[in-house]
Amino acid sequence: MSSAKVLTVLVVEDHDFQRRTIMRMLRSLGASDVIEAAEGKQALMLMNHATHIDLVVCDLDMPKMDGMEFLRHLAELKVEASVIITSAKDRSLLTSVEKMARAYGIRLIGVIEKPVTRHSLADLISRHRSDTFQTKQMLPSAPRFTLEEILYGVQQKQFEPFFQAKVDFATGQILGAEALARWCHPAHGLISPDAFIAPLEHSGNINDLTYLMLEMAGIACRHWHEQGYPITVSVNLSLRSLTDTMLADKITHIIQSTQLDPSHMILEITETVAMTDIAPVLENLTRLRMRGFGLSIDDYGTGFSSMQQLLRIPYTELKIDQSFVMGCAGNTTLLSIVKSSIDIARQLGIKTVAEGVETQADWEILKTLGCDVAQGYFIAKPMAGNQFLAFCRSFWQG
Ligand code: G
Ligand code: G
Ligand code: MN
What we know:
The longest helix is centred in the N-terminal third of the chain and has 21 residues, at about 120-140. The strands form 2 sheets. An 8-stranded mixed beta barrel has the order 6-7-9-10-11-12-13-14, surrounded by 4 helices. It has a 5-stranded parallel beta sheet with strand order 2-1-3-4-5, with helices on both faces. It is built from 15 helices and 14 strands.
């Protein structure tokens, strides 16, 4: 924490002794200002009146207002602070609280099982720092864009794919990369997908971006092949686009124009809640599979009728969602979900990809379980096209 500048932390904890302990640890970790509240109402008042709070460390089990209600009010206040939850409850319960907090739009950096240690706090605070650093890098002033601005950006081809490596657990070799859209805004710099995917999807304009991504990812992958790296590229497809029965032809056409063989492209589709219009989706995906494209079920485990979807669609790959992968080495609930996902994939004869591998410990256990492919910060973050080629050069095991 040597780079510590100002870090104002609010500790919400009803036990005096625990609260003081946490406050002491925070100070020793370089927090410049630590304020306290013994219960939720008082904390909310402080949030309303305090100048600025960067981080809230909040207990889950409190009398009067519990941690969950506190988080909901926090979300309603639309405060920018990051949140760390502490609790003595068991891990599976904490996982649902985590999901709830995220669903409320809380910037949750993690959950600490009590007793809180200096080490676990230090770990999450450094994550907070890199998060805010990244957010600042990506979104200088967190601009919000109108649909017109986004569409203009797409039309001007201001979007480009960043690439995140996918690596073979068994050999450590690079197998491919996932293309993740970034908007290189002429005035605001790099903008991440949360600012543009949803507006494009909801307005029925996501195809414009998808086509651009397919073309640029295809060209990049073709280039990697020419440079001696015969790897795959994965592109995210919005389920919405798949209701148009012309999509498969359009995609085939684009990939043909880049001279990439479809067997080197994987299309990732997120499983979502009950699809009513499943017939055209099946037609598109089956046609794409027949033409040699790989099909990946993205964010597996977060959707609805997982099993049913798997049986209907000829997937070649299953991507275990990062919410189950991160920290699975130290969490029996997560681990059992990961295991059963690997089992299902094995029974279906398709590959498993663990997304969100961040630590050596998670890498080791996933490898032992027989997971095929790793993707995550432990290996590499998404990077620009030219950087990715340099990464291949340094990482390649020829
Ligand atoms: O790095 P990351 O922040 O890139 O991506 C956030 C989310 O945006 C992910 O869920 C990812 O699937 C989605 N995403 C990234 N690029 C694309 C894209 O080109 N098309 C679609 N539909 N989703 C994308
Ligand atoms: O398409 P999908 O929802 O699977 O998009 C992957 C998302 O996960 C991207 O936003 C990508 O940046 C992010 N991601 C990939 N690996 C990691 C990781 O190890 N840690 C975290 N926090 N995010 C990751
Ligand atoms: Mn994906």
